[in-house]
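Entry 14. Structure prediction run on the chain below.
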Amino acid sequence: MVSANVSDEITEKSLDQVQRENEAKLLERKVSDDTKAFSPGDDYSLDNNAVEMFDLPNNTPKINMEGIPKIKSKSKVRKENDEQRYNVLVLDTSASSSFLDSSGNIFYTADTAIDYVKASAKKFIEGVQKADGTNYVAIVEYKGSTANVVSEFSTDFVSLNAAIDGLYASQNTRNVAAGLQKADTLINEISNPKAIKNVVLFTTGMTNDGEYSYDGHYNEDTIGSEWRRSDTQVRLYAYSNAAYAMAETLKSKATVYSVGLFQMMENMPEEGLEIVQFQIVFFRISYIIRTFL
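Output returned:
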């Protein structure tokens, strides 16, 4: 609102300028608020403005891929082109998952997310190639009870993409904690104390193999706590506690992000909605840079 005391000499153009300035201030405030949740520390800021859309081959759902965090140093001492950035991609390459009702009958089968995992990982690498400084990428896959290093840290993006192309889905369980442990080993091998270290977990929010603990971040009060793996009878939240603890260990050494791949659960019947909600809760163990739902 313009005050009644404002001079008649104020023109329509000047009022437009005031409006544009106000809109710019609101936009600046919005961007500032949005980036706070993703900040890895006081020395760095994340550029999350780019948004791209792409379709997976032979798959109709579209993926809204936020710009991969491009970390820019605010330090006046260190130049951007002197930065070393190490990124570990931790990829879920497990196969499908079946969900049983109280009678032991399968009421829903979630297909593998391998196509989404591979497409998202390659999109990440595409973004890394455009970033300033020297950027290394390592790849870890996890399936079943174990995880393994697919590629050590490398700047050979052609070879990294080829390694991703070679991934395939197998085994019907997955161990997020094992994947994060492999990432932790890779992070510990970095000798440059000033290097920027990132771990990016690509997950469906499901972990149901490997170590487990009933003591930890999740408990009987967590939504979906009644769900268990049928053969071991171990509650899913117990497996999740092991993964959460490993993520907390990593956070003391690197910035940990999550890329959520929930497309496989979008048709889950009502009787399984609690497990979907739990998967989303578990997904929030780190900074969220993508969600698919």
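Helices lie at 12-36, 114-129, 157-165, 176-188, 236-251, 273-283.
Filed with the rest of this week's runs.
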